[in-house]
Amino acid sequence: MISFRDWMAQNVKKYYRSDFRKDFFTAPELDRAFGYALAHHLAELVEGYERPALLELGGGSGALAYDVLSYLRKHRADLYSRLVYYILDFSPKLVELQRRRLGEFQGKVFWVESLVPVQGVVFSNEFFDCLPVHVLREGKELFLENGKQVWREFSTPRLGEVLRRMGYEGLSQTVELCLDCIDFLQRVAEHLLKGYHLVVDYGYKAQEIKRFPEGTVVGYRLHRLHTKVQEGMDLTAHVNFSLLEEYGRDFGLETLSLKSLRDFLLSAPPFVEELELLSRSETPEGVERLSRLKTMLVSMGDRFKVLLQRKLQDS
Ligand SMILES: C[S@@+](CC[C@H](N)C(=O)[O-])C[C@H]1O[C@@H](n2cnc3c(N)ncnc32)[C@H](O)[C@@H]1O
């Protein structure tokens, strides 16, 4: 017998350590304009720092790091010369891929196996959705026994406490709680000496949970989404942004903004410039890229959110 949370944790790890990049596309892989937009926002945040660090959680294929660094090297040369870029990723295969992709940034990018102290920004795209969730329903927790679902008492009293704090007690629906997200957030806050935490992911706010009566855990295989999850899939759960905000406060992280991906992209001049340029383009590549930017704005634009938190300084 294994809790769903432990089963998901094992499978996510196994998935990223064996396979990669065949079951889904992320925004940075759709188009470089995503990384340019993010680079613009990151630069605005750390412009005044003497020696800023950017720490990316879950670097995937290295596409995001490549676009962020390329943009900063070209458009913010002074900041680029002062910064250091870290990637934290638990997949040796993906780290290998990232190293190859980022060869030209040798001496600027470093890989870390655990969080390091940072003055700057810790950020991620589609990282928190990979962290495992506890699945609860009407006072019971989901376990698996020989592939069958079994509902039992909570594996830890923390679940009851978080359920109460989020106002989910008494809901007659599936509720997913990501204690791993809380623990990871705490570690981020502890390592953030000064600066910001920025999360891009798909997710919901506390009160929106009712839109997902059966929960949000899904698996991806070969670009198809499956609600009946199995081993060998890329397993994910929507991120509860209110949970990150609520517990962030305990760890000294103050929310500065929570906006849609669309607003985040459209408030970045480099993204808008690319959009304008591409809408005048008649080449097949230009037309294709324009449609990818529209995908980010339209089908991903509301589903994805961007949370920005600032570390409060000890007084
Ligand atoms: C969905 S991919 C996103 C990759 C990239 N950020 C992008 O947008 O293309 C998730 C990434 O996070 C890494 N990852 C997932 N869980 C992790 C964990 N607990 N610790 C470290 N890395 C993790 C995976 O290896 C993978 O690189």
Task: Give an account of the 3D structure.
The protein has 315 residues and is α/β, with parallel strands linked by helices. It has a single domain (2-310), classed as 3-Layer(aba) Sandwich (Rossmann fold), CATH 3.40.50.12710. 40% of the residues lie in helices and 27% in strands. It has helices at residues 4-18, 27-30, 32-46, 63-75, 77-82, 92-101, 158-165, 179-191, 241-250, 261-266, 269-279, 284-297; strands spanning 2-3, 53-57, 84-88, 109-112, 118-125, 134-137, 140-145, 148-152, 174-177, 192-204, 218-221, 224-226, 234-236, 239-240, 253-260, 304-311. The strands form 3 sheets. Strands 2, 3, 4, 5, 10, 14, 15 and 16 form an 8-stranded mixed sheet that branches. Strands 1, 6, 7, 8 and 9 form a 5-stranded antiparallel sheet that branches. A hairpin with a 2-residue loop joins strand 7 (140-145) and strand 8 (148-152). Helix 3 packs antiparallel against helix 11 (269-279) and helix 8 crosses helix 9 (241-250). It is globular and about 55 Å long. The mean pLDDT is 93. S-adenosylmethionine is lined by residues 12, 16, 26, 28-29, 58-60, 63-64, 88-91, 94, 125-127, 130.
Low-confidence region ranges = none
User: Could you tell me the mean pLDDT?
Assistant: 93
In whole angstroms, the N-to-C terminal distance is: 48 Å
Major sheet description: 8 strands, mixed
Percentage of residues assigned to helices: 25-40%
**Strand content bin:** 25-35%
